[in-house]
Amino acid sequence: MPSEVVVLENEKIDITIWRNFLELVKNHKRDFILLAIIMVFVGALDSVFPLFTKYAIDNFIVEKNLIGLNKFIKLFFIVIAFQGINVYLFLAMGGKVETNVSYDIRKKGFEKLQILPLSYYDEKAVGWLMARMTSDINGISETLSWGIVDFAWGLAMMLAVVIAMFRLNAKLALIALTVVPPLAIASAYFQNKILKAQREVRNVNSKITAAYNEDISGAMTTKTLVREEINLEEFKEITEEMKQKSIRATIVSSLYFPIILVLGSIGTALVLNSGGKDVIQGTISYGTMAAFIAYTAQFFEPVRQLAVVFAEIQGAQASAERVFSLINEVPDIIDSEDVVNEYGDFFTPKKENWPEIKGEIEFRNVDFAYKNGEKVLENFNLKVKPGETIALVGETGSGKSTIVNLLCRFYEPTSGEILIDGIDYKTMPQIWIHDNLGYVLQAPHLFSGTIKDNIKYGHLDATDLEIIKASKLVNSHNFIMKMEKGYDTNVGEGGNLLSTGQKQLISFARAIVKNPKIFVLDEATSSIDTETEMIIQKTIENVLEGKTSFVIAHRLSTIKNADRILVIKDGKIIEEGNHRELIKEKGYYYNLYTNQFIEEKNKEVLG
Amino acid sequence: MKEIKKLFKFMTGYKGIYVLAMICIILSQMVTIVSPLIIRTTIDSIIGSEPIGSNFLERLIQYIGGRAYLRKNLWIIGVLLVFIAILRGILLYFRNTLASKTAENTAKNIRDSLYDQIQRLPYEYHVKAETGDLIQRCTSDVNTIKRFLSIQLVEVAGSLFMLGFVSYTMFKLNVKMTLVSMATMPIIFIFAFIFFSKVKKAFEASDEAEAELTTVLQENLTGVRVVKACANQKYEIEKFDEKNKDYRDKTYKLIQDLALYWGASDFICFIQIGLTIVFGSIWAVAGEISLGTVMAFSTYVNMLLWPIRQMGRTLTDMGKAIVSIGRIDEIFNENIEILNGNNEKPEIKGNIEFENVYFEYEKNTPVIDNISFSVKAGSTVAIIGPTGSGKSSLVYLLARLYDYNRGSILIDGKELKDIDKAWVRKNIGIVLQEPFLYAKTIRDNIKLANPSIQDKKVYESAKIASIHQDIKSFDKGYDTYVGERGVSLSGGQKQRVAIARTIINDCPIVVFDDSLSAVDTETDISIRKALNNRKNKSTTIIISHRISTVSEADEIIVLDNGRIIQRGNHEKLINEKGLYQRLYEIQNSMKDLEEDIKLHA
């Protein structure tokens, strides 16, 4: 939910999260290792360069001759060519790891999203899920792959430098490295501070985003209440906090770098002092000392890089935590192993083993409660004959939608059974009922693509002829043909290039193109122009014919034409019968109908 | 570069500090250059026996104690090196903190201005605005600019200076060596420039692939019910996988291009280093230059190479920052409402007069067409009419969310357009049909317009709005936190909180824009009763579809197509053929219903 934006980040490095991560990327273990190996080469070669200078000084300059210069040039050329290739390889390999890891996690996440039941979607806002699937996943894979690069390079380089120094001169090496313990202590101290400071910055940052969101969505309220100045004052507090925290974070990290710098120069100074004496005494060469001076500088170069990597990993952990909460989510509704073996699942349905559906439906002692314990249905019983049309009426929150959601197996009963043609649907895969279901939503949702794509969505194997047939049945053929590109007309993102009425008709066509045995219609309450309204009324009559149908009904015409009307209140059927019978009762339905009647008449007058 | 100029506007007060940051980086680089010189002199002239060659250094060394003394006490030079590092560290510290101070303050300025700009943009802008895009501009674009300021721009200044200063130092040391040491630099620079302008396409391809992926994801998530009902999970996964692969491949391609660049440019850089060592050795052997000079050059080459190599990237980043500035500037270029002009702030009693008011959103399609009516202070007027008849537009005009094209609206005899906008809105309380609640507590939401108001008043208003009991029944009462967009409250509850937060301000004029629609009839009645019982009754305008809501008004106005088609009190209107009578019959008599029932019985 949106308020989760402000949830504060975890402080400690969490091992289980990274273990999860390793499990997920084990397919790319080889690439990871290869990448690390390349980086070791890069780091090691980087440490070779001062040796060239040393060689040139000792053998050419000091000796005052150029014997071996050709060989020197050749060797140097080979080394740099090799290093150039290395650089290319590590970047390309890093890119491969990054893109593959993010591809994999994203794929996993999406597959999980397809399996998760509606109850999950009721809890999570689309924006929240989007953020997990895009920026969080990008963040993790980026940090991880390039983190490895910097880490391996840094360690390799430091190690190589140390080895080179010891091989050149152990005494001088020890002297140069006396600065390492204070460096380690300073790093640990500042690391902690930097991480904390950056975490605080990230937390304020999400507050800023939330504030902008309100700024935009609440503009009208702000204007009518003349709240501009107070709003700005409040916002300025947040940006001030952001500024302070950011500057603080910079100060902390700006203190760290000079300390590394000074420690490095102390190393150089020690080398110069002691090495210089040795040179004067002739115990070491000019070149050795030059190399040592270069090494002390090189040794400290990766330290800062490693510090940065560390901070980024901390940031990525927060992302990883959220992404894994999605990937590890256990769906409430799962097809059991036996069921999958016999009848298949979403991905490999074994349709040949499925019994054909006639359309008889029974709710037997069905209870349903939400996760928070809120009871919606209690001991609900209902029997529907094949081909019967059931209209569900009642107020918002009465339980109508729950009944339909249970029928579609978007939710499952907390207890009791739902039988299709006498078969408990839990003994069948979820896709069994969905494959036989036509469902029209209150707010039509179309996908980007053409009109044809959208109708075909209901039955991917539909032929053009079947598509046109479905369109004709729902009275959408005419308006489609009037469009310049006909069925190949692009509907735009979310179908936004079409009118609401057109979208509704196309969603009808989509629902019936596979000729489902069970039909569920959640009637729209939004008003459309009278002409389209008439077409839709006629369409509904056409569509419902011959199918077992459940309609959450708002239009009086739909209600009146139903075979059976169920009046639902507080999760119970309080009245049942056809229109005539229920009107005679002069009970709840009579009132409901009267209100609806007035509403519709009002609409006729007021538009 | 006009974008950079615009950026300067937001740096007010910190330009000086920013220049200081640049000076710091330049100074730190001068200091950086000194270290190799010291090492060179030490090796050549103190440990070795070359002449020093510089009067200044000669005198300095003499001052410290002479060559022989230093030769025995090399630690002095070590201390000097450490001292220089400390100096450099201090300079870098200031460079970072000063640049960050500038960047953060500039970012704060931009953020605050954006926030204020957005809330002051006229209502018509908000009707069309895309929230996601706007937020993107306010957050990531601002961050891009911040990074550019705090890191890249100072760095550019540093690099340019370095280029000049190091070249100068090198030329002074040895011209021939300098030419050799800079031989490949033009190549690297041109290569970087050409490469980064070419790779732009690959960047765009990757961005586009990401956008397509996002669209598929978004549509899948919002259409989850359709996906499930159509049993198309497999199809969706395949569709997503295709886009996911495409994004992966295009991004990988981009990184490969970049890898090629860094690999090749590193190679050229290494060649440069090699050239310097080889030629340095040859000339040193020939006795033309000293050992120390070779060492100094090999350090300088490094100082020059990497910034130049980085330049290509900095240029692309600069391009991104300029695009961001442009995107933000688009928001600033929109005209905002002037809330506090040089207008009057008369005391408002509550007399309203519309005189031949005409208003249109688009040319020649009037929404309000020549409307005249008046409301006496303390009385109630109800407006009723079909959708699109102009009811809400009337309210918008009254609140000066739009300004009328012709005619006049007088408040206590003063022309509305001459009254200060903020003053108008402070005095005319409007309750919207779909109110927006802030992510604050219910208490703060009711106090919204005036946070310093007393709690007693909050409860009073909530009682009048019939929401007090509801709030009391929540676990945390008035301190219940309203989730974003008020998710935890029902539509009717939200409407009632909105009523409370409006009437708490004791405005002389209150407008209910269909704001009781989600409230049941009985609550509706009790709210209106409570309002009527208040002392200093406000002038009230009620817009509603419910006859029972409007029937008690002193005058009822029936609008259609922007014109008044009927007016009068309830008694008069129910006896007059027309829309009002028709609605009254529908809502009160059973005649139609009985006919309908007979028809279908």
Question: Can you walk me through this structure?
Answer:
The complex is a heterodimer of chains A (607) and B (601). Chain A is of the alpha/beta class and 607 residues long. Residues 1-8 of chain A have low confidence and may be disordered. Chain A folds into three domains: 13-169 and 318-332, ABC transporter type 1, transmembrane domain (ABC transporter transmembrane region fold, Up-down Bundle), CATH 1.20.1560; 170-283; 389-398 and 430-606, 3-Layer(aba) Sandwich (Rossmann fold). The longest helix of chain A has 54 residues, at 228-281. Chain A is 64% helix and 10% strand. Chain A is elongated, with a radius of gyration of 35 Å. In chain A, α4 runs antiparallel to α6. Chain A starts with 14 loop residues before the first helix and ends with a helix. In chain A, β7 (518-522), α19 (530-544) and β8 (548-552) form a beta-alpha-beta unit. Chain A has a six-stranded mixed β-sheet with strand order 6-7-8-3-9-10, sandwiched between helices. Chain A has a four-stranded antiparallel β-sheet with strand order 2-1-4-5, covered by helices on one side. Chain A contains 22 helices and ten strands. Chain B is an alpha/beta fold and 601 residues long. Chain B contains 24 helices and ten strands. Chain B has helices spanning 2-10, 15-47, 55-64, 66-72, 75-120, 123-128, 131-173, 175-181, 185-198, 200-222, 224-229, 233-285, 291-332, 391-398, 421-427, 442-446, 455-464, 468-473, 491-503, 521-532, 547-550, 570-574, 579-588, 591-600; strands spanning 352-362, 365-375, 380-384, 406-411, 414-415, 428-431, 509-513, 539-543, 555-560, 563-568. In chain B, the strands form two sheets. Chain B has a six-stranded mixed β-sheet, with helices on both faces. In chain B, strands 2-1-4-5 form a four-stranded antiparallel β-sheet, covered by helices on one side. In chain B, α2 runs antiparallel to α13 (291-332), α7 packs antiparallel against α8 (175-181) and α17 (455-464) packs across α19. Chain B starts with a helix and ends with a helix. At the A-B interface, α3, α4, α6, α8 and α9 of A face α2, α5, α7, α10 and α11 of B.
